[in-house]
Write a structure and sequence with these properties.
353 residues, alpha/beta, inorganic pyrophosphatase (n-terminal core), Diaminopimelate Epimerase, Chain A, domain 1, six-stranded mixed β-sheet, 12 helices, 12 strands
Length: 353
Amino acid sequence: MINYLSTATTEQIASRLGAAATVAVLTHSKPDGDAMGSVLGLVRALRARSVDAHGFLVGPIDPNLLALARQGEVVLHAPGTAPRETELVVVVDTGAWSQVEPLGAWLKERADRVIGIDHHARGDDLAPMRLVDVTAASATQVLLAVIDSLGVPLEYGADAERRFSIAEALFAGLAADTGWFRFSSADERVFHVAGRLLGAGVNKQRLVQQLEENERPTRLAATGLALQSIRWLASGSVVMMRLSYADIVAASARPEDLGGIVNVPLVVGSVSMSILLTEAEPGITKISFRSKPLNCGRPSFDVNKIAATFGGGGHVQAAGARILAGIDVASAQVEDAVHAAIGGSARAPASAG
């Protein structure tokens, strides 16, 4: 692990990007709202400067997020493919080799032309030239300063219905990484940025409907199975759920159907941390961690530190990791990690069903 800090200023990065003829914009595998918004926001800003820019995404990708893109703005990764050759490569919303694994070798061969724009506290030597702001709530918030330095209007790209603009892409990322402004990261600066983006024509209600109220019925089936698996840990302050490979098949769920399920138990007042383990394929378990900020005397957990014990990471209130083991083995390891992180007895036999 390197000292993951900025190595260039906003102006230096904007100057290099604006002078390039061709740019590929990448992000972590299985892009979320912030990743997708960052890719689209930068692609549109560079195209406004007559730079030949395109995004390259490694899926799976939620179709609701993919609908934010205009035709030709992004290319979807297929086995054995890589971005077309470009003068510069920008990696947004991550600095970890583990999160760009399918393109790792390709990036290492082009290390001298890779630029990073991120807001995470941990990262690797993926991008020698990088801008990292861990105080930002989203990568799109960091990116906004770069776009301002490029001198591009936030309305650029909008159609007659004010879709597909730079502002819309940035707002989607900001909303996603703040839990639609519920998380503690949604500070005064975030609302100032949100106000600018809304002022640039973003239709917030349309985005809510497209991104938050547009799921398939299988989402409910998967959520029900996860809730039935609940284990109450740490005297009820921690909830752990699981979806085995068999559960996912039984629910006919796709990976994009599982996003956000980890947040559901946080509606319970006594719950300070929620954990969801998903076995998307046999022998590989993904762990999603969420927690509440300190409030009303209840405990608050830094889930980023717990995720780091498995080689993962993220933020204080939202993080993830992956264990190369089946869900039974992974569940025991996660319970032990919770026990080590918070002290006392984490294990408990209680179940919701």
